[in-house]
Amino acid sequence: MPIMTTKPAKFEAISDEALTLGQQLCFAVYSAGHAFNRTYKPLLDRFGLTYPQYLVLLALWQQDKMTVKRIGEDMGLDSGTLSPLLKRLEAAGYVTRLRDRDDERQVIVSLTEKGRNLKPEAFGILADISKATGCTLEEVRELREALQRLTQRMTNSQRES
Amino acid sequence: MPIMTTKPAKFEAISDEALTLGQQLCFAVYSAGHAFNRTYKPLLDRFGLTYPQYLVLLALWQQDKMTVKRIGEDMGLDSGTLSPLLKRLEAAGYVTRLRDRDDERQVIVSLTEKGRNLKPEAFGILADISKATGCTLEEVRELREALQRLTQRMTNSQRES
DNA sequence: CAACATTAAATTGCACGCAAATTAATTTTG
DNA sequence: CAAAATTAATTTGCGTGCAATTTAATGTTG
Q: What is the ipTM of this complex?
């Protein structure tokens, strides 16, 4: 008879418990991400924007005229994701994409008048989201910082291997 | 001259600050989700599994022989996402999909021997992920519960509107 | 019991997200 | 300075995720 079958039942139970969806931090993050997406969708639909497109605009409102690479660094996305997304943002009239005259490899993404004019609306969206999350400013800050630390540690351990 | 231009500069600054990517809880969740995906990928590649496929297996290890609808409720996904994903899990030999004899509308998803045999490996994956997150069990519990509350509140406010 | 409504999956169309390959421009270096 | 290496962006292919439609089976109701 194998030794493993003699281990206490409690150990079995704890191990199994650790493998449930409800116990997984990754699944909690996964679900919260979908919940944000679903909450943003109706708020962004009237602007013809998707949630990731809105995040790109947030980045551009903070710092206009960035290269695709720089936006990718800020958002943790590669050009394979950003190139088509930015084309759609351009087609929708929110940004322009122009090759850098000094380095034709780079594309400079700039807000249009329409893109800049959207920024004031974003405060209203932010208010709606805040209401939906039901978090205090302090709760938001703590949770956000904990997630940023988590992301940082995972990204670091990724780079190490 | 419009009244708005007379508001103190500090108010401008605070408002603008609130709209940066780094201040957004939604972006912290978005980034953490991507970080988890990137951390899981190399661990799951050798099993030919994607991260969402692995989450479905987690659900099935917890409760075998579920309908597509039930899996969707557990994971917050609809059949449009699950149907093709489950077909790929079946093609990979981890699950079977069989129509319920008592209600032919339903499809019962069951683990195969191969699917069940993968469960012990999952403890190793879990250990690798835990190491990458660098969180104590207590930190994981707190962060997970905070995210679950957040998701619950957003889902509720979604249903209300 | 037959028309109607409801339900469960599957399908279709579109937008990410990422890996890998490609293209074009710039930099390095022999 | 010309060949090689590097870099930035695009493109391609695949797997989600979701809305909307379709199909088939079950329930409901007049």
A: 0.92
User: Quick check: B57 pLDDT over 90?
Assistant: yes
DSSP bridge pairs for A108: A67, A98
* A29·B40 Cβ contact <8 A: no
| The predicted structure's pLDDT at residue B160 | 79
**Residues of B with Cβ-Cβ distance to A129 under 8 angstroms:** 26
Tell me whether B11 touches chain A (CB under 8 Å): no
3-state SS assignment for residue A21 = helix
Q: Which numeric CATH code is attached to B25-135?
A: 1.10.10.10
A21–B148 CB contact, under 8 Å: no
Q: Is A14 on the interface with B (CB under 8 A)?
A: no
Options 1.10.10.10, 3.40.50.1970, 3.90.320.10, 1.10.8.60; CATH for A26-132 is 1.10.10.10
Q: Provide the pLDDT for residue B63.
A: 97
Q: Are B32 and A147 in contact (CB under 8 A)?
A: yes
